[in-house]
Amino acid sequence: MKFLITLTLALLILSCKKKGCTDSIAINYNSQAKKDDGSCEYLAQSESEECEALSDFEHIKYFGFTLIDTYWDDPLDSINKTVYNDEVYSFSNIADILVVTPTDNIVTRMMDMNQLDMKAYIHISELFFEYVGTTSGQSGADYNLRADYQARWDAFVQANDLVANSYLLQALYLGEEPTWNDISYTELKAASDYIKSTVPDVPIMIIEAYPSISSLQVPTTVDWIGFDHYFTKNPLTNTTYQSELQELKSKFSDSTQKLVIVMDTHYIPAVHTFYGNIAESEMKDVATNYFELAKSEKNTVAVIGYTWPGGFDDSTMLGARQLGVETQEEYIRIGKLITGK
User: Fold this and answer.
1) Residue 142 in contact with residue 131, Cβ under 8 Å?
2) How far apart (Å, rounded) are the C-alpha atoms in residues 49 and 144?
3) Which of 40, 164, 208, 239 qualifies as a cystine partner to 26, CB 3.0-4.6 A?
4) What angle do CA 125, 118, 59 make, to 5 degrees?
5) How far apart (Å, rounded) are the C-alpha atoms in residues 340 and 17?
6) What's the burial of 332, exposed, middle or buried (CB within 10 Å: 0-12/13-18/19+)?
7) DSSP β-ladder status, 258-264 and 119-123
8) Nearest 5°: CA angle at 307, between 79 and 69?
């Protein structure tokens, strides 16, 4: 009798040890279990797919829009407003600030963004380059490097204690279509090299206009490089856009340089319809296609939408904030995926 009780207890203990989840795809799979006890747990399909797809875009670190804090008051709304942080912070981690003079103090503006878990990329071309007249070049405008560019930059760095406050910065936007605006490589390099000597840890960014990519030369001190070509429904399949992109990448001068994808998030009815055959309702698809492009280009560091407010290039121009609900939901989806917000 004692033997039978002991044997029964041994079998019971052995049996208990061997029960558990035996399905290897379950999140609580037990490799020691011999008998399934119905305890297996699984990720919902959407969660599983999202985890699997994470590797497709984990190289993209930043998402945001232009004209967020640049003194632009959207003429298409009925309110006086020039700062749009509150509208984009929940799905952005970068936003732009315009600098006009060397004495501009933008620390409070950068800290306001930082409180919303965003870092600033700041327009600084006005500190370095000045309009000197017209030219026969592609844009018709002629910009030169200022003779006192070093003093102007030094004054701005000092006014904002930029070395100590560099943690508030994500990028220094130096070149706004530099070659298009007749800024020479020598001038661009002088400006970029000097910036890098003073604030070495903040990336320097340039965005070129697509007609000037063939003439572009990129200094090794530039970190982020992109180009703008709007009115393209699908940049992944558009042969002209792809050719321009490949040419831009051939201009990179250092192996550490990163690609910026400029997403078309504005809509000018006559122009988008005529040049791109794009209806306003298709801007959601345009956003999706740009995101797929950024995912496919593994050197992409940021996706920046042009623009958030409207009325900037044309009185009929809609910004991202005026586009349809489905389109805006797509911007939010993409931004949240990239930023993790």
Assistant:
1) yes
2) 51
3) 40
4) 90
5) 40
6) middle
7) unpaired
8) 60
Tokens 């349809």 locate to 324
Spatial separation of the C-alpha atoms in residues 290 and 260, rounded to whole Å: 11
Answer for the pair 87, 117: CB distance below 8 angstroms, yes or no. Answer: no
∠ CA(213), CA(191), CA(187), 5° rounding? 55
Q: What is the pLDDT of residues 125-152, one digit of tens each?
A: 999 999 999 988 788 899 999 999 999 9
Measured from the Cβ of residue 207, the count of other Cβ atoms closer than 10 Å reads 21
Contact in structure between 205 and 170 (CB atoms under 8 Å)? no
Complete DSSP assignment for 135-146? -SSSSSEEEEE-
The string of pLDDT tens digits covering residues 153-210 is 999 999 999 999 999 999 999 999 999 999 999 999 999 999 999 999 999 999 999 9
Where exactly are the structural domains of the chain? 17-57, 59-339
Contact assessment for residue 8 and residue 22, using Cβ atoms and an 8 Å cutoff? no
Residue pair 239/258 in contact (Cβ under 8 Å)? The answer is: no
Phi-psi region of 277 (alpha: psi -120 to 50; beta: other; left: phi over 0): left
Token pair for 19? 């029960």
125 CB burial (10 A radius; 0-12, 13-18, 19+): buried
Rounded distance, CA 54 to CA 49, Å?
Answer: 9
Other Cβ atoms within 10 Å of 157 Cβ, number: 18
Let me know: does 172 contact 227? Beta carbons within 8 Å. Answer: no
Cβ-count burial 238-272 (b if 16+ within 10 Å, e if not):
beebeebbeebeebbeeeebbbbbbbbbbbbeebb
Give the domain 59-339 fold. Answer: TIM Barrel (3.20.20)
d(CA 209, CA 216): 10
The alpha carbon of residue 3 and the mean position of all alpha carbons in its chain are separated, in whole angstroms, by: 73
Report the predicted TM-score, pTM, of the whole model to 2 decimal places. Answer: 0.85
